[in-house]
Structure formats: structure tokens, C-alpha cells
């Protein structure tokens, strides 16, 4: 299968992500069916759909936390799915934020951030700490550098996780239901950071149940159901005039 | 009934004899016991971590030998292992420690404790949440860096309590060095107690040694528990703190966003 897609060179606006005929099975269940999706650089693509629709799996194919069975994933010009590619180098270009934060529990907020700066980016300790402090301040956590994750609220933990990813100066940010595990009153703080980031022209892929966020921040919204890409449109059209009956049913159920 | 108690008292709690034994126990035995226990524990921890890493390998060629090692050394009677290492190695011409019984004893006990510790470490490492590993790999850390900087620090803290139990077994296991023959000055606590017990046809010296073993193991258990609690983090003063931060979180969420 030789699918030549038009140029994916990283534009001035940011690195694009391209999924080409991605298939993924878990045992006998096919969780992704021939997904083709172009995520333009510099804007936010939201992926929505019922649970079990394959949203997270698709997202995780971007940095190969899941290995597609078939198809290609490209990060700019780099083929992520190339077995001979240095996957660690590719991953260092992609920031990821998880539903359950996944902070390292025995490291302080600061050390959570400096670990990869020092080991992957090879920054000297002082410089890494400086960058971590700046990053924590930018997500509103100045002064909490020396807290352990258990000493932070869920919202604060997720903000540390975002700071940890951003400190690496990634080209693309992935959000895997980043607000789903948060108490309702803490969701807004995290969403507002994500909104700021989208506004700054970061390439983002956001798996979310927050329809308002998708409506306001996304450049395009994608609907997945049973592992198939059912519909893809700009938010106005996606929410205002959905075409497929399944998306119509989904939207009327969640909004 | 009273006669029975009297006999028990005389056999196990002959205070004179305990008093006679204690000075030698403290002067010679205690140091030897501690030395052996520390050496054997160090060997055991190193062997345990290495074998545990092997047990978790995806390569059968690595995993299988480690599995066999654990199964054999946990399955054999400890006495046999001590003989195999302590007498077998010198017989085979591997005289790592020359004539020094201590080296062989520490090695033998360390090797067999390593087999138990390997299973403890493996369980601890495997208890580390997959999400933490994904976060580390997602940041671009290699497999080995992830093991070293994420899995090991978390896992090691979780295995402290079961590991303490194993250290206690090591301390008591030092008695096995007796099998390899010791000079008078080399005797650890149990050997001294046993010699004295035979000499006086009384079990009281063993009780004296038992008291000293308790004097080592019980404080150690409490010390490790306290250490573990501190590692987990000094939570006492934090609960109230975190609650007020949640409030800040809310404030921030409701405040207009001016930064960017």
C-alpha cells in the first residue's frame, strides 16, 4: 500500500500529524478500522465518540504507545511507525497528558519535570530546574515546586503533568481525556490552560468528552464510533449540522 | 504442674548461665552476626535486583535461567546450599576468599536470600502502574532509563516492608555459618550460644542469644517502618494544606484568564 499524501512538511505554524490507513486489533477485536486523518499543524483536533470507540487507541498510535498493526503514522515528515526509527527521539517531540496524570509519585513536582529534561534533553541540573520552575509558574503552580503528587489536588497534578510535557518543548501535544478524572470544579482550570495552548498555535490532538471545549478551541472535530472515523468537520458544522445519523444520535445524547 | 514450670525455668532461664554467656555474645558474637548479616544482605539485594530484572525480561533466554535460579535456591534446604557453596567452591578450586569461612558463608547466605529477594523485588517492580511507565516512555526515556528512574524508585519503596522480613531471616540465617567450621573468635551469636549450651547441658545460653536477636530485629523493624513512612511522605501537616489548594484551584478556574 503506497499512499502518497501531499506534503506534510512542518509549516511555520507547527508540525502536522498524519494517519494513513491505520488498523489496530486487540486479539480478535478490531479497535481501529482503516483510519485516515490529517491533523494540521498549529491547530487543535478534537476526537470525540462513545467509550470504546478507539479514540484513545488512535491517539496513542501517535507516539506508538500503541503499535498499529497496519498503516502509517507520520509526525511532520518522520514516519513514527517505521520500525527502524528511533522511537525515543520521536516521543521526545510529542508531549502527552493522560487521564490519570501519571506523575511519578516519589518525585516532587519539580523533579517530575526535570527528569526528562536532564535525561532526554541533557540539560544541566540548574537549567532544567529553571525551566521547570518557569513551566510550573506558567500553569499557575509557582510555590508548589517541592510538593509530591500526593500532596497536590487532582487539578494541580494534571497541571504538573501538562507542565512536564510542555517543558520538553514538544511539537505536538496529545491529551487523553485529560479532565475526565477531575472533580467538576477543577476541570475549568485545566481546560483554560489547554485553551491558552491552542490559542498559541500548538498542534494538539485532544480526546475529550468536553463538547464545549471542542466547539470553542478545535480547528476540526472528529467523530469515532466502533473504531471507524465516521465524520470530520469544523466545529460549527460538526455541532451545527452533523451529517451522519450516528453522530446526530451521539450529540443529542451528550449535549 | 509446679515441678514442670520449675524444670522449664531451670532449662531455659538459668539466669546465672545467661549472665555468663552474655559477655561473650556481646563481645564476639554480636559483631560477627552483624558483619555476616550485612554482607549477606548486600549480596542478597544485588543478586535479588539483578535476578528480578531477569525474571521480568521478555527474552526467554534471560528469563528462564533466572527462574531456575529462584526455584532451585528457594527449594533446596539452606544447609545444603551452604555446604555446596562453602565447601563445594573451595573443592572446585574456586578459592575466592582463601581459607576465610566468612566469605563463603556470606556468599552462600547472600545467594540463597537473593533468590527470595528476587521474587519480592519482582512483585514490587511489577506493581508499578503501567501509566507511570507510559509517561516515562512518552517523554522519550529509554526502557533502561525508565526502569532506573521510574520503576526502581517506586518499586523499591513498596518492597521495603516485605524486604525487612527477609533481612530478619538473613540475620537469623547467619547461624548457618556454623556448618562451615569457625575459630573461636569467628563465632557468631548462635554458635557461641550453642557451644555454651552443650558445655552446660542447658538451653539457657540459646535464650540469651535469642534475646540479642530480638534486640537487633525488633528495633530494625520499627526503624524501617518509620523510614518507609517518611519516604511515603510526611503527610501529617499536608491534608489541610491540600484542601485549601483545591479552593485555589477553583478560584483560578473561575478567575478570568489573563495569562498566555
TrEMBL record, chain A:
The keyword Transport applies. Keywords: ATP-binding, Nucleotide-binding, Transport. It catalyses: a polar amino acid(out) + ATP + H2O = a polar amino acid(in) + ADP + phosphate + H(+). InterPro entries: AAA+_ATPase (IPR003593), ABC_ATPase_HisP-typ (IPR030679), ABC_transporter-like_ATP-bd (IPR003439), ABC_transporter-like_CS (IPR017871), MetN_ABC_transporter-like (IPR050086), P-loop_NTPase (IPR027417). SUPFAM superfamilies: P-loop containing nucleoside triphosphate hydrolases (SSF52540). The keyword Ligase does not apply. This is ABC-type polar-amino-acid transporter. The lineage of its organism: Bacteria, Bacillati, Actinomycetota, Actinomycetes, Streptosporangiales.
From TrEMBL, chain B:
Residues 30-224 form the ABC transmembrane type-1 domain. One of its GO terms (biological process) is amino acid transport. GO terms for cellular component: ATP-binding cassette (ABC) transporter complex. Keywords: Amino-acid transport, Cell membrane, Membrane, Transmembrane, Transmembrane helix, Transport. InterPro entries: AA_ABC_transptr_permease_3TM, ArtM/GltK/GlnP/TcyL/YhdX-like, MetI-like, MetI-like_sf. It is a multi-pass membrane protein. Residues 239-260 are annotated as: Disordered. One of its GO terms (molecular function) is transmembrane transporter activity. SUPFAM superfamilies: MetI-like (SSF161098). The keyword Transmembrane applies. Pfam families: BPD_transp_1 (PF00528). Its main location: membrane. The chain crosses the membrane at residues 34-55, 76-96, 102-121, 167-186, 206-227. It comes from the Bacteria. It is found in: Cell membrane. PANTHER family: GLUTAMINE TRANSPORT SYSTEM PERMEASE PROTEIN GLNP, MEMBRANE COMPONENT OF AMINO ACID ABC TRANSPORTER. Belongs to the binding-protein-dependent transport system permease family. HisMQ subfamily. This is Amino acid ABC transporter permease. The lineage of its organism: Bacteria, Bacillati, Actinomycetota, Actinomycetes, Streptosporangiales.
